Amino acid sequence: MSKRVIVILAVIWMIILVAGVTTSLTLALSGTNGASFVGRLASGQEIVVTDSEYQSISRYRRLNEVLELIEKEYYTETNEDELILGAIRGMVDSLSDPYSFYRTPEEMLLDQDHEDGVYQGVGLQLLVGEDNQLLITRVFSKSPAEKAGIKPGDMLLTVAGVDLSEADDIMQTAKSLLLGEEGTEVIVEVDRGGETLSFSVGHAEVTINRVEYSMLEDDIGYIAIYEFMGDDVEGFSTALDALTERNAKALMIDLRGNPGGLLSDVVTISDMLLDEGLIVYVETRSGARDSYYSDKDAVQLPMAVLVNGTSASASEILAGALQDRGAATIIGETTFGKGIVQSIIPFHEDGAGIHLTTASYYTPSGRSIHGSGIEPDIPVEQAEGDEIVPEIPNPEHDSQLRRAIEFLKDAIQP
């Protein structure tokens, strides 16, 4: 059965239930005044449906016929719940939007575990590219994935023998396959510079911290934000206070490999860095707009922000706000270019939910960076052999970090 057919099979059930009829309903165009129609049940009972209900039922009648045909004639037993789940996933998938997807109750719980920051897995942070491939943006320190030899920048190809390129929901499929009880292992294949590598990776309890910080040479405070969720706001505030107490003369924020996260979190962190003014505004297709502002309290230090091609979404909100407001200099590579916002809409009756793209966002100057990204003020390509290790920042092996240090040293000269 084609996905196009499955896409809205569930809709016919909802429409018919709303109309108060069953699949055995036969409609007759014997309406009273064109505004309603008489339907006849198999029992002979007549009911009246409105014009809009009739049009909806008529529109999706073929889909209902296909569903009945599958249930009656398909060569093996079918499961109605699985058909409905496939219909819902297919409907969302037909949007051709890698950021919109349906979540079962179990999948919603897994998402919550990730947001909370503790789960049983291998220790990878992933980003879906526009070509629907999974890029590994971070390998957590001391995780099974790091011990196995997987590196940031690898492209995830298969997990447990499953070709992820064939998955309807590539992110959820990968996340589910990578989870496992401590003591078990999973085979992972990645693409590294055109070479396919295979790793046997164990499972363990992985704790996700979203912020690392340290003091670099010349009293330059360094804060890396891995993701805008979990302990990021608390971690960033702690880092900022610690570096301020140590009399930092400049501040570097590393957003390389940060795939984004919660709008509320990036707004809160942006507010710590910016004086009074607009941070970002979000606009729906109807033109409804929500604007987010910072207050007058702000860090009064020279700032640089490190970005690369996997700095996405909320990372671009922060970088764009700091760039537009003249509060920081952006250094590195053009960012990913994800200028849209997703809402998590739960279905309270069973705990399922949908992640749906509902709006676009714009930087303070009115820029949409979707598909284009943020151009750095100082372009610096990552050099061959460079290693980005935010836990232990080392300018000798990180050309972008080295250039940012040079910039900030000049900025703090008396």
Describe the protein.
With 414 residues, the chain is of the alpha+beta class. 30% of the residues lie in helices and 29% in strands. It is built from 12 helices and 22 strands. The strands form 5 sheets. Strands 6, 7, 8, 9, 10 and 11 form a 6-stranded antiparallel beta sheet that branches. Strands 13-14-15-18-19-22 form a 6-stranded mixed beta sheet, with helices on both faces. Strands 4, 16, 17, 20 and 21 form a 5-stranded antiparallel beta sheet that branches. α2 runs antiparallel to α3, α9 runs parallel beside α10 (263-273) and α10 runs parallel beside α11 (314-324).
Short note summarizing the structure:
The protein has 414 residues and is of the alpha+beta class. The protein is built from twelve helices and 22 strands.
What would the keywords be for this entry?
30% helix; 6-stranded antiparallel beta sheet; 6-stranded mixed beta sheet
Morphology: globular
Strand content: 25-35%
Number of strands: 22
How far the N terminus sits from the C terminus, by CA atoms, comes to 71 Å
User: What value does the average pLDDT take?
Assistant: 86
The helix/strand class is alpha+beta
In the predicted model, the low-confidence regions spanning at least 5 consecutive residues are 1-34
> Count the helices. How many?
12
User: What is the C-alpha radius of gyration, as a whole number of Å?
Assistant: 26 Å
Helix content: 25-40%
Sheet with the most strands?
A: 6 strands, antiparallel
